[in-house]
């Protein structure tokens, strides 16, 4: 799809996890200059230090005036503000403004009310990310094999749409076109509702833990897996949930029905209904795509018995680093004098996990997955 070398200037407003990952996809490509807009001097320093941009500026005008593409990758609640600010400027003819917000209906409606002469707005949402935030968490591989939704107005010229589509091929994501309201219904169900459930579940257990710390000590495995997304950025998620409020209120009513059904089958001690619920869920879940990066990405975990010797964790991290195996997280689960510690290593790529198993087994460690 991409034609070799696109001569252009790309301005990124909000160079965090998503904006920073986009910058890394574009930086260094022939003819491309990537400029980041920072809204505060402290943020300016942080962006500069990250090295993901060619240039950083505190001036909206300097970032935007001669840009060919402007990516708004700020929290959803700030998108409209920047659209309004850009609308006051004499932007370059043909400039395409896009956003990466997790909701699409409200920003598309806001853009419709603005009269951008010879400037175009196309809503966007890369459907990949993580619970981490900030430019330090950015990665050029974040969007690889993920879907990237674009929500152009029906009257959008194909040429303009194709320009953005072409540029996005640097992300190695698969671009799909979806209607904004339809996007919010679906993403509300598969991403926003699960985030609410994860947060509510963690807070429920945390309240039990106040009087009985064993809850926290024993909470591992499945609990940790299904609640990873509860560690997501509070401001980013405040804005997402408020922006998709109507959809989420409907989804939460349906969720209450699901909880009600489980309550009822337990009250009735209805084993058959429990089995049926697990069977039905299992058969749908088994059909979910495995290899494509989904919106809620899995971590690949392995567990290693480690003797309680000083420096052991550093040694394991060094071995993995030397073998260029990308480690996402490491955590000691149990460390007492009388038992070997258990070290959990988490990887974002299955291939990294498999190579780590091979390496660490070869080095004599007991590895379980
Ligand atoms: N976190 C995720 O996994 C995904 C997030 N998104 C969307 O991407 C957008 C950004 O989210 P993340 O990159 O995760 O957040 P982040 O917190 O990593 O990055 C946000 C960036 O915006 C900057 N920022 C905050 N307020 C600003 C303001 N008033 N003016 C200018 N810059 C400001 C911050 O300094 C930061 O660099 C959000 O709209 C979110 O809905 C989309 C896909 C995935
Ligand atoms: O961490 C995960 O698995 C996510 O679900 C990340 C995510 C967060 C917000 C989005 O709009 C898209 C993806």
Automatic annotation (TrEMBL):
EC number(s) given by UniProt: 1.3.1.12
Domain of life: Bacteria
Principal EC category: oxidoreductase
Prephenate/arogenate dehydrogenase domain sequence ranges: 8-296
Keyword Amino-acid biosynthesis: yes
InterPro entries documented for this protein: 6-PGluconate_DH-like_C_sf, ACT-like_dom_sf, ACT_dom, NAD(P)-bd_dom_sf, PDH_C, PDH_N, Preph/Arog_dehydrog, Prephen_DH
Family: Belongs to the prephenate/arogenate dehydrogenase family.
Any GO MF annotation of the entry: prephenate dehydrogenase (NAD+) activity
PROSITE patterns in the cross-refs: ACT (PS51671), PDH_ADH (PS51176)
Record-linked Gene3D superfamilies: 3.30.70.260, 6-phosphogluconate dehydrogenase C-terminal like domain, NAD(P)-binding Rossmann-like Domain
Domain ACT: 301-369
Record carries keyword Repeat: no
Protein name: Prephenate dehydrogenase
Pathway: Amino-acid biosynthesis; L-tyrosine biosynthesis; (4-hydroxyphenyl)pyruvate from prephenate (NAD(+) route): step 1/1
Reaction it catalyzes: prephenate + NAD(+) = 3-(4-hydroxyphenyl)pyruvate + CO2 + NADH
Keywords, sorted A to Z: Amino-acid biosynthesis, Aromatic amino acid biosynthesis, NAD, Oxidoreductase, Tyrosine biosynthesis
